[in-house]
Amino acid sequence: MNTTTLKSWLQSHRWNEEAGVYETDNGNVTNFLSYKDMIHEAEQWASGWRKELGAGDSPFIALVWMDQSIYSLTSLFAVILAGGIPVPLHEYTVPDEVIRIVKWMEPDLIILPSSKLQHMGGELQLMDKCKRCHIIEIDGKDRWHIYGEPKVHLEREGISSQLNQTAIIFLSSGSTGLPKGIMLSDANMMANLRQIQSAVKLGAKDRVLLFKSLGYSSTFTGELLLAMFAGASIYLCSIRHPLELIRWVDKLQITYVCTVPALITALDKNRSWSFPSMGSLMKLLIIGGKSAHNTVESLLLRLPSTQIMLCYGLTEAAPRVCIFTLNDAPDKAGASGLPLDGVVLQIRDDSQEVEAGTTGEIYVQGPNVMLGYYKDEVRSKAVLTEHGLRTNDIGYVDDDGYLYVTGRVDNAMNVGGHTLYPEAIELVLSIHPMIDEVAVLSIEDVNWGERIIALVVCNPENIGEQELHSYCQHKLQPAQRPKEIVIVPTIPKTRSGKINRAVLKPLYLEVHHDKYVH
Amino acid sequence: MTNTSIDSIQTKVVHVIAKIVKKNAENIVDDHQLIEDLGLDSLLFLDLLAELESEFGFELSIDDFDPEYFHSVRSTVVFVKDRVPA
User: Fold this and answer.
1) Domain B3-83: which CATH class?
2) A193 has pLDDT over 70
3) In this complex, which of A240, A272, A479 lies closest to B59 when CB atoms are compared?
4) Per-residue confidence at A516, pLDDT binned at 50, 70, 90?
5) Quick one: CA dihedral A218, A220, A221, A223, positive or negative?
6) Which tens digits make up the pLDDT trace of A70-118?
7) CB contact under 8 A, A272 and B65
8) How far from chain centre, in Å, is Cα A68?
9) Beta carbons of A62 and A107 less than 8 angstroms apart
């Protein structure tokens, strides 16, 4: 088994000196830093932080609020090089959620760009709310500032053996109102990196367009580390619409894009573009849920020089599990792929593995399966079973070994590639003083996969829906916000007093059938 | 295009924006910035454009994404007016 750590890999890798990270604005390059210089810079930062904070050899936990900038990447690598465990935070995380995460995780450090520090009300406000933490503000090249008492030791006492093996923690939506902290080891990360590269085969001439949040393991491992590993260059950008994707691909001669079904659906729906637009794109990887058959089949025709790759994964598996190239197997348009090297799938019913073609719950075994959930042994034990990682996804494997994902065991919803739980949204809404009861459901949506609806019982009854939407804007991440809030007299319950989820959707559709988008 | 139809486009665009950002149309003014003032996020942006295409019957093209469009209510109204036949 290869025991390379992320830190030793970053320190010893022979970087392609011409490759690095480009920042772009409106399709124009505005900044560039080679990987070699970025890691050198990160080493300098790590050394400076250790000196000022007295960091020793034990790991410390650093929440890193990421934006699409070279300096966010540098700060994340600096944490790894300083011997810390980074916890990347999505750019779009709302301040209230940051405070909830800090109180639960109890990190030693919070690292964030100046813009985010202002968003939190400045360093004094943030320090007041996060008393144990030190704060590092990043405001550009060679410019960081530490707030908090100087010269304190960062080492955590009584560190668990799992945390001792942890290289990075990714946050993923949970059903409790707090995210799940998914602890991945160096072995997990390096294994999945090699597994992905073995399937995707990026090269030094590739250009990767990176626009998804760096808080996802998919973006971090499947795009950022993969490009660095292959010596390919990264172009950071933001994309508001799929037609912008076409613009930036053409303008920057991008060869590799990784995106979600929502963007692919909108891209295919628009008939104003045609090949050779996107002609430079060699590989298009679709992650975060299943795309409609007709969409991927249509793209196969509309992008004749592009390999369309479909895959399956979850953060708990670092994250990729299966992948395949649709061009090589066009009759498998509904599949999620074949297991990556070293990954073994099992489809199980209640007590045993089932035969090919039979639907059951998907279990994953392999070197990429996580160490466990941070501060949650009960949940860790529930999913790390003797049969492998219990995914909560339902599906089957066909006679050729291709995986098909067909549903979920739990109540999880998929909105534009984000896995979300109704329970977590209900918890946040239920805190509103005017809301007595709430139930969240989803209906199919042609653009986003699913659309979130909240049914609420209010007191007083005349509270405005707009006020509730405004509350959601402050308390929930964009993907979690209900598209519709319906004020109802009661929430249907089971005999035991729980929300009767089985009847929510039929009830909603009965009254609002005209809004049902199918 | 007559003044009436221009006014009608203006009103319709404001109503579409209001529907997407979940605000009262009466409280939305031309100078409002879509992101900063009305809270339009990346998911809602895609919904807004899809709704404008559906409401006014045009299809967006690659050249429609110049930076001068879609930053304010006014620039969005101008964008739609340029694409709706007289």
Assistant:
1) mainly alpha
2) yes
3) A272
4) very low
5) positive
6) 999 999 999 999 999 999 999 988 888 899 899 999 999 999 999 889 8
7) no
8) 14
9) yes
- On the question of pLDDT at A512 being above 80, the answer is no
In A, minimum Cα distance to B20 occurs at A483
Count the Cβ atoms, other than its own, within 10 Å of residue B35.
16
**DSSP string for B2-64:** -HHHHHHHHHHHHHHHHHHHT--GGG--TT-BTTTTT---HHHHHHHHHHHHHHHT----GGG
- Measure CB to CB from residue A266 to each of B39, B46, B65 and give the nearest one: B46
CB of A302 less than 8 A from some CB of B: no
Report the C-alpha gap between A391 and A393 in whole angstroms.
Answer: 5
Measured CA to CA, the distance from residue A480 to residue B68 in angstroms comes to 29
How far is A243 from chain B, CA to nearest CA, in Å?
A: 5
Which of B17, B28, B43 is the mutation pick for testing A, counting most A CBs within 10 A? B43
**Crossing angle of helices A293-302/A261-269, nearest 10°?**
60
pTM: 0.91
Nearest CA in chain B to A278: B62
Q: Nearest-5° angle of CA A282, CA A288, CA A292?
A: 75
Write down all domains in chain A, each with its CATH number in brackets: 6-18+32-159 (3.40.50.980), 187-408 (3.40.50.12780), 413-515 (3.30.300.30)
pLDDT in tens, A235-256: 999 988 889 999 999 999 999 9
Domains of chain B, by residue range, sit at 3-83
In chain A, residues with a C-beta closer than 8 Å to the C-beta of B65 are 240-241, 243-244, 247
Instruction: Note whether A26 contacts B67, CB cutoff 8 Å.
Output: yes
Judge whether residue A120 has pLDDT over 90.
no
Is the pLDDT score of A203 beyond 80?
yes
